Amino acid sequence: MEATYLLAIDLGKRHFQVCGTDVSGKVLFNRPLSRLKLMEFLAGHPRCIVAMEACSTSHHWGRVAQGTGHEVRLIPPIYVKPFVKRQKNDAADAEAIAEAARRPNLHFVAVKDAEHQARAVTFRTHQCFVRQRTQLINALRGHLAEFGIVAPTGASNIKQLEQVIGNESCEAPAIVREMAVFYLDQIKALTLRIDELVQRLHLASRTDAFLRRLCTIPGVGPVTAGALAAFAPDLKTFANGRNFAAWLGLVPKQLSSGGKTRLSGMSRIRWICQRGPTADSWLGRLLLCKPRMVVAVALANKMARIIWAMVTRQQDYRTA
Q1: Which fold has domain 6-101?
Q2: Which pairs with CB-CB distance under 8 Å and at least 24 residues apart come from 214-219?
């Protein structure tokens, strides 16, 4: 039997499709395996290249494959899609992964260790609770507005609604006030959890060297630093700060065809800090002559390059 050069795995929850190819790219086998069988298969298979889409659970399986001596290549799903032939199914997806993994000049995703992935849990939990609290506040405001009870937007103004509901002169029906209390209790519970998670991020920014270095940059706090630490790969993999800024999405989205270049908006930037900078600062001077969205992109690009330089050179932020 010909030696397997590359194993392409289409990941799933319980069932996995494994496609093996030789050096020339010829498919040797393409069969499904259970979760336990896949672990046994990787442990007993001779060392080769293991390719997977960089999706959910891919870093876990990447670590499993690396632990058994294999070379792992995680491919962004957008690079695999063009190689899917005809009908989409697990076997076709695994074969497409095998084909994409052999392409020259393809950039692969680095496998994250468990500690790196663990950093994302606190940040994702914080963001999830913030979304849930916003959903509850919006629902409460919508219900009470039907009875003429309104207050300014924002989580900080929820106390005004609480005072109106608690006032005996409130004309809202009793069932409305009772439901509002349920909402307020849930909002308070989520707020306590959010504050606890923020404190954890603050504590981590004082004890973790990487987070502490990022927090020395003006405008970067524990939450932003935690997001970078959780989701960004090793910044040394980028040749320069410009490449890191492009990875963040600080480049125009292209819709070009037929030799005609069409650039749309930024793929990631949507807002700029509302706190007014001083007029004599770089940001203040830029705001005087450029649209706010342009300034937002310029500021984000500058901060991304500063972060790349600081991390790769192991230096803290310097004002001069």
Answers
A1: Nucleotidyltransferase; domain 5 (3.30.420)
A2: 214/307, 214/310, 214/311, 216/310, 216/316, 216/317, 217/303, 217/306, 217/307, 217/310, 217/317, 218/317, 219/273, 219/303
User: Over the Cα atoms of the chain, what is R_g?
Assistant: 26
The phi, psi pair for 42, rounded to 5°, reads -65, -40
Q: Nearest CA to 29 among 103, 97, 94? A: 94
Query: CB atoms < 10 A from the CB of 2, how many?
Result: 11
* pLDDT attached to residue 83: 92
* Low-confidence residues of the chain: pLDDT under 50: 270-274
**Which amino acid would we find at residue 304?**
A
What CA–CA distance (Å, rounded) separates 158 from 96? 52
Amino acid identity of residue 173, one-letter, is P
Mean of per-residue pLDDT scores for the chain: 86
Each domain of the chain, given as residue ranges in start order, spans 6-101, 114-210, 235-252+269-320
| Whole-number pLDDT of residue 133 | 94
**Sign of the torsion angle spanned by Cα atoms 11, 12, 16, 17:** negative
Element (H, E) at 200: helix 174-207
